[in-house]
Specification:
The chain is mainly α and 130 residues long. It is 70% helix and 0% strand.
Amino acid sequence: MKYLRQFCIILLISFLGEILHSLIPLPVPASVYGLILMLTALCTGILKPEQVGAAADFLIEIMPVMFIPAAVGLLDAWPVLKPVCLPVIAVTVITTVIVMAVTGQITQRMIRHKPRKKEQSTPAHPKHDS
């Protein structure tokens, strides 16, 4: 019952994302609206991670299975994709490398500029008065 309740919460937020997609005239996918709603609900405390965590973990575990229909669809469209296959692969590889490099640089800068907590100034070997 816990999983069903958590899954229904996730579906409700996804549905609200669909509603926002139909109301807001921006070229933003409904799933992005849903993710923003979920993030907002979790950050504001409206939703606790425990209220959706188990169902979310399950959905993440089965995510690779969800790509099988898309892969089969690509195989069906092979005659159309064949002429543009090489440019698509080149663009995919180049943009992946760029995204990885930029992400790495930003992460390194954030780590360097992260304020460090003051360590307690307790000596390793306390001195005793003799």
